[in-house]
Amino acid sequence: MNLLKLIKNNLFIQNFVASIVSLIPSYFEFSVGKYLAIKKAFYITAHDSTPGSYLEFGVFTGSSFNFAMKVNKKIEKLFGKMDCEFIGFDSFDGFGEINKEDENKSFQNHIFSVNKNKVLKNIQNCSKGQKLKIVEGFYKNTIENKTTKDFNIDKARVVLIDCDLKESARLALEFIKPSIQEGTIILFDDYVFFKGNKEKGEYGAFSDFQKKYPEISFRRIFDYGYGSRAFIAHKIK
Ligand SMILES: C[S@@+](CC[C@H](N)C(=O)[O-])C[C@H]1O[C@@H](n2cnc3c(N)ncnc32)[C@H](O)[C@@H]1O
Questions:
Q1: 25-236 maps to which CATH number?
Q2: What is the pTM of this model?
């Protein structure tokens, strides 16, 4: 009996597999997807010798930021040292004032309020001597009308946009614009939320950015997690 026949005739196996998969917590899958995407981005940029910093918009508890520092060390063993600086941007207190079009029950300030000192201490412990900087505060106060040049950040190697709202993602994209080079990878962690509305969320912010700056061409390179997407800047005129 082949495997298909066995499964067709054995509903117990179907039920068993469904139970096992439903037991895996969504949050776990979501995080693993994000980790694997960061790992791929570090691998691809190391493979192609794309220099520069890792920029993360939306640090929260530091889980993805710490993973990026960890995985960079491993990838450097394969491809050699890259001198990557890790720079994170977060208020550690949510989004600040939320625009009408950004309102969403899952993105509320109180959800993202964390014990900043504990998070910062843990990030420091995880850095293992790598260069890092955390820019604390609401983006309106830290990055609006500023660019990477104001922070002496030269080139972006990998950027994680994980700040959920259209306005936050818009400010992040405008900020990083001068640092985008051929080979920069941008990961959008919340690409499909807001019911797939093309005007809203990170999707909306990135669409507007691409229309505003047609001189930068992006190529979609992979999808990951629960509706997240990765792009590479492949041509800058
Ligand atoms: C989904 S969480 C980030 C998760 C994190 N990357 C991880 O994997 O653990 C989103 C974070 O973005 C931050 N954020 C979003 N918009 C912001 C803004 N305008 N100013 C400051 N922080 C902001 C929130 O405070 C929150 O911590």
A1: 3.40.50.150
A2: 0.96
